[in-house]
Amino acid sequence: MICPRCGHVNLPGSDECVKCLFDLAPLDLPTGQDRVESSVMTDPVRVLKPKKPVTVPVSASLGLALQRMVDAEIGALLVIDESNKLVGILTERDYLMKIVGVIPDYAHLPLQPFMTSAPETLGPDDTLAVALHKMDVGGYRHLPVVENGVPTGIISVRDLIRHITQLCKEV
Questions:
Q1: What's the predicted TM-score (pTM) here?
Q2: What percent of the chain has pLDDT over 70?
């Protein structure tokens, strides 16, 4: 990297110029090459307008949780404790892989053993890149958005795809 102050050629990735000690770190930040890349790298999760989460108490039954999901036409339900703090997530995939066809008469069973405890979360100011990374690495289709441990929203892969598609249409 060439130092903009003195013109010295430094090794790529150097944090400061070896000749004049100028701070080079901010100059080596990646930048988006188009509208989509720029949005993913800099826009916060809040631009997706996360949906209000549908929640159930940790003491709920699998039957109640499933009924809430069906009534709200959603694929993921957030599980909260007495102080409204997020303790888990229950998804349609959990029902398909762990419950339906595996456990007879599941409706009256507690949901806690079947939910994903301490799920991966996002803050409203996390970038879309962070959301995409967490979804990709974890194989998640839904991520809760929390502030101070309390769920304030939920985003899905579909929300991210719609946002990116809209950016492509604006070109």
A1: 0.82
A2: 99
